[in-house]
Amino acid sequence: MTNILAKLKNLSIITIVASFVIGLVLVIKPSETLQFVSLLTGATMILLGIGAWIYYFVKDKAMFMAVLGSIAIMSGIIVCVKYKSIISFMLILFGGFLIVSGIVDLISAIDVKKSGVFGWLVPVIMSLAIIVVGIIIIVNPFGSIELITRILGAGLLAYAVMDLIAFVQIRRVVALKTVVDKDVTEIDITHDDIE
Fold first, then answer.
1. How far apart are alpha carbons 7 and 23 in whole angstroms?
2. In this predicted model, what pLDDT tens digit does every residue of 82-122 receive, in sequence order?
3. Of the four, 61, 103, 115, 123, which is 20 to 30 A from 19 by CA?
4. Are 118 and 172 in contact (CB under 8 A)?
5. 117 near 176, Cβ under 8 Å?
6. Is 103 helix (H, G, I), strand (E, B) or coil?
7. Share above pLDDT 70 across residues of the chain, in percent, rounded to a whole number
8. What is d(CA 149, CA 151) in angstroms, rounded to the nearest whole number?
9. Which tens digit of pLDDT belongs to each residue from 31-66?
10. Are 25 and 156 in contact (CB under 8 A)?
11. Residue pair 23/164 in contact by the 8 Å Cβ criterion
12. 160: Cβ–Cβ under 8 A, 6 or more apart, which residues?
């Protein structure tokens, strides 16, 4: 189990860095970040739709491309105009992500505790806090998307720090398990065996 967790944690360095950077930006500039990401997404969809229509006129008049282009352009316009509603949906997805990540890190911290490594209590507390933040984001008791975005940013920062701690601790556990082999038994060698 520990080896599997170690492999997963090796892959999590990218998510740790990305979560920290995104979390920091969301805490410092929540409304600007959300608006920029939404407008960029909407503009990309509109460009894809225009590209599909150009393909329709220039290449082979395929009805599929015309339909796809129309859907992409309409979706892009909706994303640009109604980005706040879409952001609410995205926040729910991020809240779910935090809950799942918190549960995974809680399991990792419990595994670290069983191995006897010091300092397991902080990851347990932080993973529980991240689970709570994820639940708060999904329930959404606040009226302000900006406030929830800041909470999301703080949650991502906490996730990055906690995941980094879990990464270091899991690596220590793996190192200890490779040094101490519990399956080694005492070998009885006599003088006759040496000869």
1. 25
2. 877 777 777 777 788 888 888 888 888 887 777 776 667 77
3. 115
4. no
5. yes
6. helix
7. 77
8. 5
9. 777 777 778 878 888 988 888 888 878 876 778 778
10. no
11. no
12. 16, 17, 19, 20, 23
Instruction: Give the sign of the dihedral formed by CA 164, CA 156, CA 12, CA 109.
Output: positive
CB 163 within 8 A of CB 20: no
Cα separation, 181 vs 183, in Å, equals 6
- For tokens 């809950």, name the residue: 99
Contacts with 12 (C-beta within 8 Å, 6 or more apart), sequence order:
163, 167
Cβ atoms of 172 and 49 within 8 Å: the answer is no
pLDDT band at 4 (very low <50, low <70, confident <90, very high): low
Tokens representing 52 are 């599909």
What pLDDT was estimated at residue 144? 55
Which amino acid does the sequence have at 171? R
Token digits of residue 139: 């329930």
Any idea which residue has 């949906």 for tokens?
A: 89
Q: Is the dihedral of CA 143, 146, 149, 153 positive or negative?
A: negative
Give the pair of three-digit tokens for residue 69.
Answer: 């282009």
